[in-house]
């Protein structure tokens, strides 16, 4: 209907044109089409240039990363999800991507292969840096993903082993689930963790299992020769350093192996395995911080699962300074609020950090080009995170050894 009306008006006006006016119109039309053409050409010229880095050889990009005790820490993430979690996992991944870090993405065995393939393709398409820095692996032959039974723990240990074998150059191993989301940028997190001793492990545990379901953890003799404290339970979401992961995976001492055999028969081994190993090991128990660095709105400690976060929690959550929060519903507007206000993630690309050097324009992702990835630029949320981490470390220091029963 709009088209028909426009043609009728044009037809009526054409008859009354005087020559001068006609020329002016022709000139205007010509200028308009030329400038349209020029902008089209510019658009096409700039598009391939924006994608160039992904074709560049990855070794050059990856070798530009500084590692070691004097460099900023490198984080190794395990992201887990179940059938139907592919999109959530991609969003979570983009919210925590940084070229310095390492990532393993695991969609459990109940998810179809198509979903796994879409996730892998989505990761590559959304962040050209992934191809150049070669720091992401999507698990192709997954384990079952139920929290009940041994396969969840087996999947976590396997991902840790894969990370050790592929690139043993990271400092902390972090586990996240599709229902988790960050409250700080990776620049914030890397900056603050730079001042945290790397021998620390963040693991939430309690021996007060009375408030939880006592049937989950049973008292039994693990090994008649060794006294072990196994009545520990906590959050399955952990931040463990590489030395401790090597201790558990390579198991040159018998403790991790004995406990693994025991936890094979526990209903929810993920809530107790690492906790029991760390608190029974003389080498690591003094370097344990009883906090998993996640924000949860748990009103009732007897509840096993905390409630979903909603708008009413936003202020408290952001002010807490915690680096991660959980659990969120899929595509909750709260996540858009976090993206817009804190992470400054507007497009479908990763969170722009100091490493992103591309121009910020509506049609291009600033992270499709990059500069020195060893530089981080902490934002305003980093101050809250630093206070939170300082407070957590102070509490860990002042309380008696949290591993003690
Ligand atoms: C751990 O702390 C205890 C007591 O606080 C101390 O006796 C022990 O030597 C410490 N162990 C290590 C490995 O630092
Ligand atoms: C946290 O503690 C470190 C030293 O342990 C200090 O340099 C830093 O200023 C503290 N940050 C905040 C925000 O309190």
UniProtKB/TrEMBL annotation:
Keywords: Glycoprotein, Glycosyltransferase, Membrane, Transferase, Transmembrane, Transmembrane helix. GO terms for cellular component: membrane. Its main location: membrane. The chain crosses the membrane at residues 26-45. It comes from the Eukaryota. Pfam families: Branch (PF02485). GO terms for molecular function: glucuronosyltransferase activity. It is found in: Membrane. It is a single-pass type II membrane protein. InterPro entries: GLCAT14A/B/C, Glyco_trans_14. This is BGGP Beta-1-3-galactosyl-O-glycosyl-glycoprotein. It comes from Paspalum notatum var. saurae.
């Amino acid at each position: 209907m709009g088209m028909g009306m426009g043609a009728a008006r044009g037809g009526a006006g054409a008859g009354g044109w005087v020559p001068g006016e006609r020329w002016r119109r022709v000139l205007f039309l010509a200028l308009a089409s030329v400038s349209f053409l020029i902008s089209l050409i510019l658009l096409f010229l700039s598009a391939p240039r924006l994608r160039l880095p992904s074709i560049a050889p990855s070794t050059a990009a990856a070798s530009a990363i500084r590692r070691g005790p004097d460099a900023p820490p490198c984080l190794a993430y395990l992201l887990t999800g179940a059938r139907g979690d592919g999109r959530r996992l991609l969003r979570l991944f983009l919210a925590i991507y940084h070229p310095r870090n390492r990532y393993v993405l695991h969609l459990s065995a109940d998810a179809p292969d198509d979903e796994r393939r879409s996730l892998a393709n989505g990761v590559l398409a959304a962040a050209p840096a992934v191809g150049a820095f070669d720091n992401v692996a999507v698990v192709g032959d997954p384990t079952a993903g139920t929290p009940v039974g041994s396969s969840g723990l087996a999947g976590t240990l396997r991902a840790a082993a894969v990370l050790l074998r592929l690139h043993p150059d990271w400092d902390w191993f972090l586990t996240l689930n599709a229902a988790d989301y960050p409250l700080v940028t990776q620049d914030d997190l890397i900056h603050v963790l730079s001042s945290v001793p790397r021998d620390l492990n963040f693991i939430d545990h309690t021996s007060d299992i009375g408030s939880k379901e006592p049937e989950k953890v049973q008292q039994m003799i693990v090994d008649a020769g060794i006294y072990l404290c196994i009545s520990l339970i906590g959050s399955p979401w952990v931040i463990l350093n590489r030395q401790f992961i090597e201790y558990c995976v390579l198991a040159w001492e018998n403790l991790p192996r004995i406990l693994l055999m025991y936890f094979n028969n526990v209903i929810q081994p993920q809530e107790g395995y690492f906790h029991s190993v760390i608190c029974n090991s003389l080498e690591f128990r003094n370097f344990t911080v009883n906090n998993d660095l996640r924000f949860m709105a748990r009103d009732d400690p007897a509840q096993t699962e905390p409630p979903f976060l909603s708008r009413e929690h936003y202020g408290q959550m952001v002010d807490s300074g915690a680096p991660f929060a959980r659990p969120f519903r899929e595509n909750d507007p709260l996540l858009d609020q976090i993206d817009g206000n804190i992470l400054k993630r507007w497009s479908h690309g990763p969170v722009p950090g100091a490493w992103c050097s591309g121009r910020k324009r509506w049609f291009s992702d600033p992270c499709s080009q990059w500069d020195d990835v060893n530089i981080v630029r902490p934002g305003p949320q980093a101050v809250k995170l630093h206070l939170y981490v300082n407070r957590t470390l102070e509490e860990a220091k002042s309380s008696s050894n949290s591993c003690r029963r």
